[in-house]
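Final report, Chapter 2: Outcomes

The project's central promise was a pipeline that accepts a single protein chain and returns its three-dimensional structure in a standardized token representation, suitable for archiving and comparison. That pipeline is now operational. To close this chapter, we reproduce one record exactly as it appears in the project archive, with the input sequence first and the structure output second.
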Amino acid sequence: MEWNMLFGQPLFALLLPALIAVGIFYQRSYKFGRQSLDIGEESAIGSKESQEDAAGASQTTWGTLTVLAQGMGKGQAGKIAALVTVRTFMDLFVSHDVISNIHYFFNQAFSQSNREVLERLQGAKGGTAVAAVAIHKGQLYYASVGDVKIAVFRKQELISINDGHTMKSAAIKGFSQGVLSKEQALAISKQDRQSNYLGRDGFKNIEMGIEPIYLTAGDIIIVMNQGIYKCLSWVELESILTQTASSQRLAEQIIGAFNAKNVPEKDNANLFVLRYNGV
């Protein structure tokens, strides 16, 4: 059965868990032919009733794309939004020539994903944050919406790449531009929610790196949802990443630390760990 035909049908809600279990939409390990990039991926439900995030990775002759979507909403809405987004990115990446303009690809993928999410949800309240990382010949390109975090671990230090669309980042930007007073910015920054996401009318404002980040052999790229970085400190993540292990093993250790952390109300946790071994 064609995947797109299944969405929007009552049968979808019944088949969704089985489809995820067999890896049609959600994949835990990625074994590509090229060895320049070692990819690991892992997840945990946390204290939630279900996993609302989705992840996907694909490799073409151009390079590698990884996408992490963090769903949100009532019922199945968040999960559907995340799955639709990852599938849209994957389909566009393998069917389009992105060599000439990766930024055009990102814009198209985000715009089409937003339209697809709105169409599938049919008015239900839901959406998804998403971050995409594309690597081509040692150059990292990224784009994100919402609060999924991208970071690079280099020389024993984890460096954040994207700011994210949170109320705190929006408040800082508004204050720096003179639009908000200090008091207004402080009040807004205390709101624990996203300022932008896919699944909304009038969607815009993709955070995108204008210039590529040039990777060096041994760099580790982390793409993680807020469940990870709100539970584990930057220092805790760095201590795990210093270990000599495969990307999959590092991802498993981070999730292990997440599961072991005794904190209330854990969100879903999901992350990619990508180790760049050189061209």
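Archive annotation: The CA atoms of residues 233 and 239 lie 10 Å apart.
This record, like all others produced under the grant, will remain available to the consortium after the project formally closes.
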